[in-house]
Design a protein that fits this description.
The protein has 83 residues and is mainly alpha-helical. The protein has 2 helices and no strands.
């Protein structure tokens, strides 16, 4: 009973440090087994959310870059007229 709890504790510590590629083996079909399943499910959700966050940031960066490039071009053109 102590070994599975130690594994779950170590996995939780790794997850807390940002390692989302952690899975816990299910040794028992009891509360400890459900805890392992819950930790694995939580890790999968965190990975999914991390991917969504990365995709969102990439999309926003692209969408902002295009208007900013246009604005920069207009400003350079306007400044060129006054030089």
């Amino acid at each position: 009973m102590v070994r599975p709890l130690s594994e779950i504790t170590l996995a939780a510590e790794r997850i807390a440090r940002g390692n989302l590629n952690v899975t816990v083996a299910r040794h028992f079909n009891d509360e400890i087994g459900r805890l392992a399943d819950t930790l694995n499910h939580m890790t999968q959700e965190l990975q999914r959310l991390d991917r969504l966050k990365s995709e969102f940031i990439s999309s926003i960066s692209y969408e902002l870059r295009t208007p900013l490039t246009s604005i920069k071009g207009f400003v350079i053109t306007l400044l060129g007229d006054f030089r």
